[in-house]
Inverse folding.
């Protein structure tokens, strides 16, 4: 080394002293590595603790057949009126059938087409053979033969339906209904929706054929 020159102060292992920013960077890296290690240990600890408090799976409980039948009755809206095993009584079927028929008559067009008149007569004829209760179907066949359905208008069909219902009620020993009030008792369906070309979507005038 030439005379008069001084060597730089030696750092660790004989290397020159590190610049301040390098020292700071090295310390920051060590701190980050330590933080990462601590975070990993914390995550493992939390996972173990959560596993210890995880609730055990509950075994499936089989529902008895009777409970299934009761649930089905509740879904159908029968309110428990159905007989055991899901069967329904003749009275329940009768009430549902008359509600359908009176509502159909209330929805029947004021001026039905020829096709609609045929459909109404055919439906009454089908019920004399395909009603769920055979004895009831036979009685209804006698009613239809004695007084064929009046299908010329809504008023005529509604009145005929009411009189047919009264005939059945008298056979069953039940009181008759005042047919002058039939339109007030069964006023049809209010859909609240507009069908094609205006009017109610529930109207039988929609898509009718002559």
């Amino acid at each position: 080394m030439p005379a008069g020159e001084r060597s730089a102060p030696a750092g660790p292992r004989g290397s020159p002293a590190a610049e301040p920013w390098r020292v700071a960077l090295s310390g920051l890296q060590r701190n980050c590595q330590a933080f990462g290690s601590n975070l990993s240990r914390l995550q493992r600890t939390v996972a173990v603790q959560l596993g210890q408090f995880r609730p055990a799976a509950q075994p499936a409980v089989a529902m008895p057949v009777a409970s299934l039948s009761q649930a089905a009755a509740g879904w159908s809206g029968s309110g428990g009126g159905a007989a055991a095993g899901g069967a329904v009584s003749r009275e329940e079927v009768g009430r549902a059938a008359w509600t359908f028929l009176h509502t159909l008559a209330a929805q029947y067009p004021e001026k039905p087409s020829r096709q609609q008149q045929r459909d109404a007569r055919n439906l009454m004829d089908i019920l004399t053979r395909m009603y769920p209760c055979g004895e009831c179907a036979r009685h209804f066949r006698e009613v239809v033969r004695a007084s064929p359905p009046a299908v010329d208008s809504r008023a005529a069909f509604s009145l005929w339906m009411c009189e047919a219902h009264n005939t059945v009620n008298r056979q069953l020993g039940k009181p008759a209904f005042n047919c002058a009030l039939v339109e007030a008792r069964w006023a049809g369906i209010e859909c609240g929706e507009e069908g094609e070309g205006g009017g109610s979507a529930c109207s039988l005038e929609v898509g009718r054929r002559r």
